[in-house]
Write a structure and sequence with these properties.
single chain; 179 residues; alpha/beta; Rossmann fold; 8-stranded mixed beta sheet; 7 helices; 8 strands; 37% helix
Length: 179
């Protein structure tokens, strides 16, 4: 399962570098799967608190065990559907980085994006995984890039990254990175 559903080594290194470079303190991951992404975000980042949400109880239990084996106490796992979790967290809760890797459906992605907007600040970053998964996902990505709150978007083919910092110049980049 890790081979097909988990984060690749290259993506793991990249997200860990992003967290270090931007001094990310709070992360929300939607789509824990077996926990490889969570591990990549938490390892060597003791001051970063990772909250990860997985709907499947068996998968989230497996991930919890891996985090315990690796002694990663900075990861908290929530076993909920994404919509339920997002509709039930405090409006005051903000995240520096949100990594969305699950429910590859246009309607759902756009719903989550709207729900997540009350949990970001001007320096937050949202990373969308698999933006070319389907025509639906491509359309969702294009809609997100056109959102008035998005100042900078970066299309890496495998990820779409958006920034909200009003001090940046509005730009949309496409960088074809294939791992």
């Amino acid at each position: 399962m890790a081979r097909y559903a988990g984060m690749t080594r290259h993506k793991s290194k990249l997200i860990n570098k992003i967290i270090g470079y931007f001094n990310i303190k709070t992360v929300l991951e939607l789509g824990t799967s077996v926990g490889l992404g969570s591990i990549a975000m938490a390892v060597n980042q003791p001051n970063t608190k990772v909250e990860t949400v997985e709907a499947c109880p068996n998968t989230s239990s497996f991930a919890r065990k891996q985090f315990k084996i690796l002694d990663l106490e900075n990861i908290t796992v929530f076993n909920y559907e994404f919509s339920f979790f997002l509709n039930n967290i405090s409006d005051r809760k903000e995240y520096d980085l949100i990594y969305l890797d699950g429910h590859h459906d246009k309607k759902a992605i756009l719903e989550y994006f709207k729900l997540l907007q009350k949990h970001i600040h001007p320096y937050s970053i949202i990373i969308f995984d698999d933006i070319y998964w389907s025509k639906d996902m491509q359309e969702a990505w294009q809609t997100i890039c056109r959102d008035e709150t998005v100042i900078v978007s970066i299309d890496l083919y495998f990820w779409g990254i958006v920034f909200f910092n009003p001090n940046l110049s509005q730009q949309h980049y496409k960088i074809r990175c294939f791992f």
